[in-house]
TrEMBL record, chains A, B, C, D:
Keywords: Lyase, Metal-binding, Zinc. Its cofactor is Zn(2+). It holds the Pfam family Pro_CA. Its EC number is 4.2.1.1. This is Carbonic anhydrase.
Amino acid sequence: MLDFPEKLLKGYHVFMNTRLVQERERYKQLAYEGQKPETMVIACCDSRAAPETIFDTDPGEIFVMRNVANLVPPFHPDKEYHATSAALEFAVQSLKVKNIVVLGHARCGGIRSALDLDGKPLSSVDFIGKWMGLLTPAAEAVATNTLMTSSERQTALERISIRYSINNLRTFPWIKRREDQGKLALHGAWFDIATGELWIMDRRTGDFIRADD
Amino acid sequence: MLDFPEKLLKGYHVFMNTRLVQERERYKQLAYEGQKPETMVIACCDSRAAPETIFDTDPGEIFVMRNVANLVPPFHPDKEYHATSAALEFAVQSLKVKNIVVLGHARCGGIRSALDLDGKPLSSVDFIGKWMGLLTPAAEAVATNTLMTSSERQTALERISIRYSINNLRTFPWIKRREDQGKLALHGAWFDIATGELWIMDRRTGDFIRADD
Amino acid sequence: MLDFPEKLLKGYHVFMNTRLVQERERYKQLAYEGQKPETMVIACCDSRAAPETIFDTDPGEIFVMRNVANLVPPFHPDKEYHATSAALEFAVQSLKVKNIVVLGHARCGGIRSALDLDGKPLSSVDFIGKWMGLLTPAAEAVATNTLMTSSERQTALERISIRYSINNLRTFPWIKRREDQGKLALHGAWFDIATGELWIMDRRTGDFIRADD
Amino acid sequence: MLDFPEKLLKGYHVFMNTRLVQERERYKQLAYEGQKPETMVIACCDSRAAPETIFDTDPGEIFVMRNVANLVPPFHPDKEYHATSAALEFAVQSLKVKNIVVLGHARCGGIRSALDLDGKPLSSVDFIGKWMGLLTPAAEAVATNTLMTSSERQTALERISIRYSINNLRTFPWIKRREDQGKLALHGAWFDIATGELWIMDRRTGDFIRADD
């Protein structure tokens, strides 16, 4: 109907006839009581790395911001609007989430473009270039190490960027404060699309360790 | 392990032992061939309105950007980084998606705060205020109409904001061009959390019509 | 007896009463007919990464050279004796092995010392420093990338060093010739001590891929 | 996969499904705590004389250097890299092993070539000739004794070379010192491939005595 993408409409009908049937009460309750997610997930737009799928979550469970390459820019108070900072402010100051998870993933197109130091911009304005420019110093440090394979450099920068975003989270005063008070924990994770494996960041060392080990 | 949120780890193990088992080949293929989603969904961070759940999608099917209130700011080329514009550029110019769906939903906290003209900011910087400020003219027009109930005003602005974002999409020259060429279609949808109903925007009139009617 | 290490003597008696009983004929045959291993393995001295254990090999199956960090120095014909080059010459020119496998491993002490650019030598002569000095250019490229964790740098250099050794194998004219003739194949592998996983090098890309994937 | 030698991959899968299953915890511990072998074994590359097999050792038990004919060159401090000396330095100065075992064996190809005074070199550079040249004075004394059979000459030189290597170990000042302090013991052993018998060197006399006598 209304030329809405056929595939999505079919999917919605599956949802309506299966999950919604079982969870109608839950949805009703979530509508009237409001959402109370304990965790915010910052994820990539990539179609292969949806946090709801990977974490098999129920409605109401995770508050999810998604942008290219799951980046958190540093705290930058000015007169402009900031999609990412606004989502963080809402999650932390209003919903008072207890966890923020930065979820990266393998074969990230944004990370790949950051490593392609001589790449052509996708448009004359080059929004992707400016966005991934947040990672430029890290990307240069990785891209110039030609002893690593391109795939190794990609994985390295994907993980560096997760740690970078977590560090940037701490530049937001109200995140830092809540973390210091033990009310908020910051986590990193990396999803390997090819194998479906989840790697969790060790918060002391920054290393990524397979979740099922 | 590593004090990662218990609930998410359990969910990941469910994913690993169920969906991943069935879709291992698909994930492998998606990894090696890259993602080729036909549709980009612009959705809200709200924990109750995940597009993958509502549209029952498979991995690789939809490219998903999520911010507070599923807003698309107008095309604004400057020296700053723009999370939303970067995601649009990647989806349209690199992935060449055929559809963009702006997916709003009922009881949106961002929309509520936009309507609350005297509300206190969540922080001294007021990132949410600036972000929802994109809707200020529309919000003022709706908020001052006291003949509508507060619930009607909320739904009204939710739908207005979807049309606003779709109009802003057309301010991006490469989106306008592809739409004019018939290569890209822009859609709106609104999810009613309380009932689980999906309302689709009629592209000619801008009205929202229940999907199962 | 004779104050030989007790543990080894006990182990020998286990061997004598179990494996040797089953394989006495094989040992006899191997003695009279000589060894005909099809594969040479270049491995590290590390006590946790014995190729016979990891590959569950039978007597006579693999010809094994082991030095610190499984390094192959470049072809360097002079008047000096060269342990590694001599072993290569024997394996390729006399035994005519069909495969050479460079087997690295996680948490390699030699690699760690190569990355420790300011480390103190173990002796005034610093044999380890000179030996690992073969990797100095690679070690510097990796060690200076402080955006990677120390564990990530370690893994990176372990894998770089395997590729380095394989490249050096090709500097030996009789290895290059046999490889070009399709009579000899050069392989890389990396053993993860913590998990027992073996990662195999993709010979086209140099990437390491888990053996059970 | 990836054309890695089939036999080794099969062997790895046996390892993975048997030994690794039983020793997973041990491997994990060895990874996180590091290796602490009490004994270094200097063995030959020969495919029939793997110390892990002969001594039925567990992972982490012995630090193993292997070169052609299990030779230790004399202490020779210069600007060059030395594979064998580096391994010794690491074992003694860093791991502080309590025992060094030089493990020779019957029918050693390296020893045979040392005795073949008129043999042709395997390559124009003759790496094996230079390496076995360490034994030339001993080889000449044995080779010219035509009253012994060729098999007796072979065994004689195999045992002489073990004592030669043990003497050379004492030319390393930090080995000599630790031996004098009673912190390090130097041992010899000889493995008879045809019978599977181990012969232990009597440290007072230098004689070899069957281990099970």
